[in-house]
Amino acid sequence: MSSNKKVALITGITGQDGAYLTELLLAKGYEVHGIKRRSSLFNTDRIDHLYQDPHEDKVKLTLHYGDLTDSTNLIRIIQQVQPDEIYNLGAMSHVKVSFDTPEYTANADGIGTLRILEAVRLLGLIKKTKIYQASTSELYGLVQAVPQSETTPFYPRSPYAVAKMYAYWITVNYREAYGMYACNGILFNHESPLRGETFVTRKITRAAAKIAMGLQDKLYLGNLDAQRDWGHAKDYVEAMYLILQQETPEDFVIATGVTTRVREFVRMAFAEVGIVIEFKGKDAEEKGYVVSCSNPLYQVAPGTEVVAVDPKYYRPTEVELLIGDPTKSWEKLGWKPKYDLQGLVSEMVAADLELFRKEKLLKDSGYTIKNQYE
Ligand code: NDP
Ligand code: GDR
């Protein structure tokens, strides 16, 4: 490893944010190391374009097998890599799934953060290694005040959020107790074409693309009333980087300051493919109907029901309203998002239309592919 090049270690490198952050740090000249989990299927799709054969000279991206539930590997990797910066993005990140796997979520998302902090401390790297913790707007949970800022009280509403609350405070505690450069980025929802297929935005943009191509009939969703402050992951990884470049370690809210209902996101995504949707009914009876369709790929008759509510997607406890106050990050980090929601939706739908072109060709030639995600 060269002495003047910065070295970053990313947990969760195979996820949405891991991929964008790796791209950003490589472009800035960093040597990047990532921790990936062993999986029975390839799980590096999002970073395959950045991969380098380890036999080449001057390799800038290296992957290590590991898991946040195993402190032995974390200590070994951190000792080997001697990172200047650690971005702890690894997590069981699906709120609804955390109700099904609460203990695992606490272990990976909560104690996993402690394992990283403690590894840095035990290895004597407190003065060298800066740590970014992927904290979340889910911490605000049940609305205490809006917009939510760094000083708004937390009220987590899921096993995921409770685990992330432990991670938040243990990060603050290690900063205060040991003088570590350890910070929380309290990031509001951020999306992209790389977003996991079961998060609501990507589920919607995939469905809009597939319905527009005649590959899917209907989209089933849960709570259409939830309001989220959605930004673009590409913008948000810049904020992560900036949080670790300050003189003093601090926690920051990263958000757009604009909130939108799930229902409105649906309308915007379908509008991208020329389908105008109107919602009628209330709660679980609410449905989205096609008003008009000017889609050149596939005509959907006006009056067709393309969106329906399935209560199985409801959460036992819901976070109804998130809207961030990003003033501190705008002023202190000089960070501002470049994308607005319309730009995000357009990019996501365009990417999904491209993704399903192959499936459409297969279907048009008589093949069908069974959906795995909906
Ligand atoms: P993803 O779900 O796309 O990625 C999560 C990453 O964590 C994947 O690389 C996954 O590996 C890895 N991972 C999961 N469990 C473990 C484990 N036990 N040990 C090691 N790695 C693990 O999430 P995002 O990229 O969207 O989010 C990144 C981080 O930011 C997460 O911590 C999330 O909770 C947090 N966050 C996300 C926000 C968002 O809107 N996206 C907002 C606020 C916070 P694999 O690929 O093998 O599954
Ligand atoms: P969230 O994101 O829970 O905010 O967590 P998600 O996209 O899963 O849900 C957003 C809102 O949409 C409602 N919803 C549905 N959600 C999903 N997944 N599927 C559906 O069919 C559906 N229908 C309605 C949800 O009830 C919710 O209100 C994300 C994750 O990335 C976390 O890791 C991160 O910490 C937070 O964002 C900030």
Write down the overall geometry.
globular
Report the top-level CATH class of the largest domain: Alpha Beta
Question: What is the strand arrangement across the widest sheet?
Answer: 3-2-1-4-5-6-11
CA-based gyration radius: 21 Å
Distance between the termini: 45 Å
EC number: 4.2.1.47
Protein name: GDP-mannose 4,6-dehydratase
Function: Catalyzes the conversion of GDP-D-mannose to GDP-4-dehydro-6-deoxy-D-mannose.
Organism: Mucilaginibacter boryungensis
Describe the structure.
With 374 residues, the chain is an alpha/beta fold. The chain has 2 domains: 181 residues, 3-Layer(aba) Sandwich (Rossmann fold); 108 residues, Alpha-Beta Complex (UDP-galactose 4-epimerase, domain 1). The chain contains 11 helices and 15 strands. The strands form 4 sheets. The protein has a 7-stranded parallel beta sheet, with helices on both faces. A hairpin with a 6-residue loop joins strand 13 and strand 14. Helix 1 crosses helix 7, helix 2 runs parallel beside helix 4 and helix 4 runs parallel beside helix 5. The radius of gyration is 21 Å and the shape is globular. NADPH dihydro-nicotinamide-adenine-dinucleotide phosphate binds next to helix 1 and strand 5. The site of guanosine-5'-diphosphate-rhamnose has 22 residues, from helix 3 and helix 6.
Outline of the structure:
Its EC number is 4.2.1.47. With 374 residues, this protein is α/β, with parallel strands linked by helices. The protein contains eleven helices and 15 strands.
